[in-house]
Amino acid sequence: MGGPSHVDRALSALRQLIFSGELLPGSDHLETELATRLNVSRTPIREAALQLQAQGLVEVRPRRGIRVVPVSAQDMRDIYDILTELESLAAARAAQACYSKQDLATLATAIRDMDDALTTSDLPAWAKADDQFHHELVRLGRNARLGQIVSVMRDQVRRARAATLFMRPKPTQSNTAHRNVYQAIAERDPVRAHDVHHAHRRQACETLVELLETHRLHGL
Amino acid sequence: MGGPSHVDRALSALRQLIFSGELLPGSDHLETELATRLNVSRTPIREAALQLQAQGLVEVRPRRGIRVVPVSAQDMRDIYDILTELESLAAARAAQACYSKQDLATLATAIRDMDDALTTSDLPAWAKADDQFHHELVRLGRNARLGQIVSVMRDQVRRARAATLFMRPKPTQSNTAHRNVYQAIAERDPVRAHDVHHAHRRQACETLVELLETHRLHGL
DNA sequence: GCACTGGATAATGTATACTTTAACGTATAC
DNA sequence: GTATACGTTAAAGTATACATTATCCAGTGC
User: Fold this and answer.
1) Alpha-carbon span B127 to A22, nearest angstrom
2) Which residue in the set A55, A78, A89 is minimally distant from B143, CB to CB?
3) What is the distance between the alpha carbons of residues A162 and A182, in angstroms, rounded to a whole number?
4) pLDDT tens digits for B7-46?
5) B43 close to B49: Cβ distance less than 8 angstroms
6) Whole-model pTM?
7) CA of A84 to C1' of D16 (A)
8) Which residues are CB-neighbours of B88 under 8 A, at least 6 positions away?
9) Is strand C in 7 Å reach of the CB of A32?
10) Is strand D less than 7 A from the beta carbon of A46?
């Protein structure tokens, strides 16, 4: 069976390099350089770069290199605007879908994991569980295209959150909000699910952008 | 100066072939076939196909060919859900942006063109002006990422609308709705701009999906 | 008749060679 | 000293050659 192709590996590797910060935001990288680095020819690099460009992670600029796009505070606002609307829509749709408690088990698990992480002050674990919750929420909304868009937006947010995770107050509110969204979905109340989640994301955006701006974290 | 590359031309050509229906939804096309057809090598075809895949217009399936993705009625609902939320958000943001009447001139022009097209019953012209209005609206919302997403979604809608344009009743309501959105933006009333546009798109979705389903137009 | 094996085939995945061209530096004219 | 023209160079764009491998079909065994 065909294992992952060189393009696939280049994609993962480049994502890894970007998220880990080894490829700094704003930095340019020639195709040849990356090809050498990943031990492949230019072809898979070019194809991977094209896909990353479509995801907004890099920008290919002829003769200047493949650029890791920096994300400003304003960009983050734009991204959150999209994320907020689409996730809230997913929440509403999930509430309309008449899920049983069993269907919502994964959501409940994510919430529990967040609580656990909070009591042990394990912020990375909290972030992971938080991602899990949002991912599940969108999945329950049953709109594959929406899921894809949201996941691209969430990648960007993740980059910024990594830089600010340890500056934040304990995210107690988030857990409460998630619990309320879960309740609304379980009770099949789309409007409440939508509104609660919307307010939650809006708040999260404010918190994040404020941190970015006060700490002068531009071009993440 | 560097004219458009082969990749650029392949992209336009393939889009043209898809939108014109020469490449039927659901049909598969080998890289070599398309390369011969467009008089280029496989390389630009592969790169173009990757970008079209990112836009959801084709699906590249190893050894089975590049497939023009068919769009079902349910797909169209999903697409409209996204479009509705994001365009409405753009409308709200546009209303918050304190634009002068001059800034809104292009919107007004689009509305006038729609009216003209309606009185002469020139439906293609109406569709074009309609696109223009929505495009302008989103531009005024000042969120580049949102603009990109919306434009991808609108491509899909365009495919379906082309098939149903002449089945519809005269789109008088649309013109009224657009006028109201324009008004709300001019009066800097984000909530009304949002809600009016939201209702408008929702209605459009219902109309379109109903046509698709009654006429059994699956896999457009 | 059916399932399985194995090889032929053809399409993709990848590397590489080649072409084109933008960017940079140098030299020259003024 | 500045600006323009020109040549060099290196990077991307493209074609192509090659390697890999899924698919199909014929043949075999049962």
Assistant:
1) 48
2) A78
3) 26
4) 999 999 999 999 999 999 999 999 999 999 999 999 999 9
5) no
6) 0.92
7) 48
8) B193, B194, B195, B197, B198, B201
9) no
10) yes
